[in-house]
């Protein structure tokens, strides 16, 4: 066992890394542990660390159902002991270092060992002993955490914050000064704006009249410039933040490609706040926008499938499309289970690849990754009556 001061946590894996992890085929079983350490979860406050209790309970449940094979039992116990030692070490970390989630994958018989810190919370703690790494929760976070541009707008400036996987950064030259019509760093903008206020104090009314006209022109210029920055920074969506009327004028001036990225609008004045606070205020809305998008995708898949146009619903039809590499995007409820009547269906058997019926979502996601398809997870609770519950827990948008 390694010394407890030798542990290292990698940042949230990118999609290519998750794909590689899902494709791993170790000689023996893998212990996959994904822990919800988020301090915003009431169960984790005041040192309660419910995630450590959930880990112990998960290991106990696996232990109770292990086969009689002596080698496998010994391998599990080695991995379980190492995982508990690691969790104890992680419990001593500051919340900032530990993050809002932890994930580790150990294959004791071939040396596979990956550990990650997550800046978005998992839906729940997951502990799995299986012959492959269990990656579905990571895929859910990767989809929820797709890169977003937070565009904070007010009468003086347009300010950009890049958000991805729960972390935020301020890009270089992230503030567009409406009175000068140019990009600058926010710190430089704040200093310059203070000096400008002092210099123009003698004739404020005349100056403001000129500025009002100039700002309107500059707002349109800023929208065009933001469109270019969105492409440059590879944002998958935009969240526009500011006074509703101002945001509407800004959005109207966006280039077509950037306008299509607008996922939501937030009526709040955040442009002067610290970057971290802007991101913290915006994150709940980004999360809700993701859930709304997932629900819309599910409705779309259901409507297209009913018209027999580019989508399928249900485990049987989705499994067939996956095994034929026809899926563009998989939509799956993590809790979906293959019903007994489909247990011997050819494509379903191929999809499960020897896994139990409870692994339907995981194996479907692995197949989707292997064939280059995107994956969106949506629980029945999130989807409501119009969600995946009406599709049997699984649906897919197909390639043209």
Explain this structure to me?
With 400 residues, this protein is an alpha+beta fold. The protein has 3 domains: 4-144, eRF1 domain 1 (Translation, Eukaryotic Peptide Chain Release Factor Subunit 1, Chain A), CATH 3.30.960.10; 148-273, 2-Layer Sandwich (Nucleotidyltransferase, domain 5); 292-398, Ribosomal protein L30/S12 (60s Ribosomal Protein L30, Chain: A, 2-Layer Sandwich). It contains 14 helices and 15 strands. The strands form 3 sheets. Strands 5, 6, 7, 8, 9, 10 and 11 form a 7-stranded mixed beta sheet that branches. The chain has a 4-stranded antiparallel beta sheet with strand order 3-2-1-4, with helices on one face. Helix 7 crosses helix 8 (244-252), helix 11 (315-323) crosses helix 12 (346-352) and helix 11 (315-323) runs parallel beside helix 13. Mean pLDDT is 90; it is low at 195-200.
Name given to the CATH homologous superfamily of the largest domain: eRF1 domain 1
Helix content: 40-55%
Which percent band covers the strand fraction? 15-25%
Unreliable spans are 195-200
Largest sheet: 7 strands, mixed
User: Given the structure, what is the number of helices?
Assistant: 14
- Return the domain count: 3
CATH architecture of the largest domain: 2-Layer Sandwich
3D shape = globular
Distance between the termini: 51 Å
